[in-house]
Write a structure and sequence with these properties.
Belongs to the AHA1 family. Pfam families: AHSA1 (PF08327), HTH_20 (PF12840). Residues 1-88 form the HTH arsR-type domain. This protein has 255 residues and is of the alpha+beta class. The chain is 44% helix and 25% strand. It is globular, with a radius of gyration of 21 Å. It starts with a helix and ends in a 14-residue tail after the last helix.
């Protein structure tokens, strides 16, 4: 049990367990693609998780697949929670969930597209200032490190940013999370929305999932529901054909 608590005390190891919870049975390479860390360091963290029996491995040919083992976590629950506090915690958990749902009941928009490309090229298309200028009409400007500021800057030479925010997560080439807000509302916590780009490679294609959450109202959701498909279609065209669509798709009439 001491090894389990030691393994869980590190944030990177908890993230590795989260990745396996999302998609069990990953190779070292697949796990490294989602963690901004050297391969050797990820291997060391996995060794700690294996020693604690939180991760088990299975050989498949030359590959080693990593699987989440929930048994030690279940034993912790049985030893310290179920016997004493389970009924009371279930009630408190239900109250907490209802309160959180009431407080965060803001519209969310999700868009998924499939692109014939690589995860690295899709990542670059989302973060490179010149590439975003080509298909988005704005340059996304940042160093893309976690905690850094980013700006959505007009390409007319004015230097004006129509959207600003913070990089919340940056795990090239698999996941990018940013906050979005109008520059004149910066610093007002209730005005921020949040955009997550999940980039998943499968053979020769990439599934790009964009989740835009914490939108202020249904009107804002309707706006992004028309904007994201246009922008991402232009990105898809650029990566697959080498050029953007012949007309700016966001200017196409909706009816």
């Amino acid at each position: 049990m001491d090894q389990v608590f030691k393994a869980l005390s590190d944030g990177t190891r908890r993230r590795l367990l989260d990745r396996l919870h999302e998609d069990n049975g990953q190779t070292l390479g697949e796990l490294c693609a989602r963690i901004d860390m050297a391969r050797q360091s990820v291997t060391q963290h996995l060794a700690v998780l294996e020693a604690a029996n939180l991760v088990s491995t299975v050989r498949r040919g030359r590959e080693k697949l990593h699987y989440l083992n929930p048994v030690p976590l279940h034993e912790i629950q049985e030893r310290w929670i179920d016997e004493f506090e389970s009924p009371r915690l279930r009630v408190l958990g239900a109250v907490k969930r209802r309160a959180e749902e009431a407080m965060t009941d803001k519209p969310t928009y999700v868009y998924v597209t499939y692109i014939e490309s690589t995860a690295e090229k899709v990542w670059d298309a989302l973060t490179d200032a010149d590439l975003t200028a080509a298909y988005w009409g704005h340059s996304n400007v940042s160093d893309w490190r976690t905690g850094s500021r980013w700006e959505h800057v007009r390409t007319d030479g004015s230097g004006v940013a129509d959207v600003v925010g913070t990089v919340v997560e940056s795990e090239r080439p698999g996941r990018l999370v940013t906050t979005w807000v109008a520059p004149d509302e910066e610093g007002q916590d209730d005005k921020y929305s949040r955009v997550t780009f999940d980039i998943q490679q499968h053979a020769g294609i990439v599934r790009l999932t964009v989740t835009h959450e914490d939108l202020p109202d249904e009107s804002a959701r309707a706006d992004v529901a028309s904007g994201w498909p246009a922008v991402l279609s232009n990105l898809k065209s650029l990566l697959e054909t080498g050029h953007v669509l012949p007309q700016e798709p966001w200017l196409m009439p909706t009816r």
